[in-house]
């Protein structure tokens, strides 16, 4: 079992992280760490709501107040389509078209788009370094960068840094400058915590809300205006995640990828059977949306 458990890591080590970035990302996100990638990307999106220019737009659309679960499922499924099939596949191009059409309606700065893209690269890597059943291989880190760089290009994002460390430095600097408290941060943060809690039975929801706060770092807590959870909450969460990681070391490697397979999403039961990426996505912006949030023709 010991040698078999690391067979995918060894396969990744033999691939080129730039040329083979899609294959490496599919192996890592779909077979080695699917649960971890899902959780890490949830928190990556959550992290972007600490930027007031992002939270202001989300609050203005009303989507997080009215349809938080659908917005979560749309984002999750569309990104999974691109990863599972490739950004240049028919389904991948269709998913990108849906994403670009949705973003194209709004006045979103290139830097905000670039920052969101950076969280998709580095937040899962940070998560795996803390909670993965093994550390991410250097090729997995570089492949994630090259994969999302190509996705970002197809989303029309400009000035994506050419190097892994350069992009990481951009992310750190953007957070230092833009993570400040705002009422819309707090509002969108509360809707998101409520969404996470709603996935559990009612009697567990207060504990889930507390647990989520325990997972947030100090800059996020400040930007959301959330009170910190007791230290034991974070310690308990860390213990549980490290215990899970240790246990997974004794499991056999996953034989089939779960990318693009989402039987538990709550908006589109049974996806992807009977659905296309074009079936996903938010409705047209409300006529009441302030003009400042709309992209000018």
Structural write-up:
The protein has 297 residues and is mainly alpha-helical. The chain has a domain at 2-180. It contains 15 helices and no strands. The protein has helices spanning 2-5, 7-13, 21-32, 34-48, 52-61, 63-66, 68-85, 90-104, 110-131, 138-154, 164-178, 183-198, 205-215, 218-224, 231-248. Helix 4 packs across helix 9, helix 9 (110-131) runs antiparallel to helix 10 (138-154) and helix 9 packs across helix 11 (164-178). The chain is globular. The termini are far apart. The model has no long low-confidence stretch (mean pLDDT 93).
Major sheet description? none
Radius of gyration, taken over Cα atoms and rounded to an integer in Å:
19 Å
Percent helix: 55-70%
What percent of residues are in strands? under 5%
Alpha carbon gap, first and last residue: 59 Å
Number of DSSP strands? Answer: 0
SSE string, helices as H and strands as E = HHHHHHHHHHHHHHH
Tally of separate helices = 15
Low-confidence stretches: none
What general outline do the C-alpha atoms trace? globular
SS class: mainly alpha
Average pLDDT value? 93
Protein name: ER-bound oxygenase mpaB/mpaB'/Rubber oxygenase catalytic domain-containing protein
Organism: Actinoplanes regularis
Pfam family, one: MPAB_Lcp_cat
Domain ER-bound oxygenase mpaB/mpaB'/Rubber oxygenase catalytic: 60-235
């Amino acid at each position: 079992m010991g040698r078999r458990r690391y067979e995918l890591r060894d396969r990744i080590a033999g691939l080129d992280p730039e040329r083979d970035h899609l294959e490496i990302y599919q192996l890592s996100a779909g077979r080695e760490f699917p649960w971890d990638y899902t959780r890490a990307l949830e928190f990556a999106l959550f992290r972007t709501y600490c930027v007031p220019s992002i939270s202001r737009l989300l609050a203005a659309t009303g989507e997080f107040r009215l349809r938080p679960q659908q917005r979560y499922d749309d984002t999750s499924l569309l990104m999974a389509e691109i990863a599972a099939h490739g950004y240049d596949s028919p389904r991948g191009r269709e998913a990108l078209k849906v994403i670009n059409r949705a973003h194209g309606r709004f006045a979103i700065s290139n830097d905000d788009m670039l920052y969101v893209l950076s969280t998709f690269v580095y937040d899962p890597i940070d998560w795996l370094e803390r909670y993965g059943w093994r550390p991410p291989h250097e090729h997995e880190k570089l492949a994630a960068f090259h994969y999302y760089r190509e996705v970002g290009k197809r989303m029309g994002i400009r000035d994506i840094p050419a190097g892994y460390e350069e992009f990481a430095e951009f992310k750190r600097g953007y957070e230092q400058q833009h993570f400040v408290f705002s009422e819309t941060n707090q509002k969108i943060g509360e809707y998101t915590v409520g969404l996470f809690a709603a996935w559990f039975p009612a009697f567990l929801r207060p504990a889930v809300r507390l647990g989520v706060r325990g997972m947030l770092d100090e800059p996020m807590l400040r930007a959301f205006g959330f009170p910190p959870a007791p230290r034991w909450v974070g310690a308990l969460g860390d213990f549980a995640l490290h215990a899970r990681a240790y246990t997974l070391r004794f499991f056999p490697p996953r034989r089939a990828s779960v990318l693009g397979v989402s039987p538990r999403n709550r908006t589109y039961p049974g996806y992807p059977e009977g659905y296309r990426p074009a079936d996903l996505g938010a409705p047209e912006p409300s006529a009441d949306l302030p003009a400042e949030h709309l992209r000018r023709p």
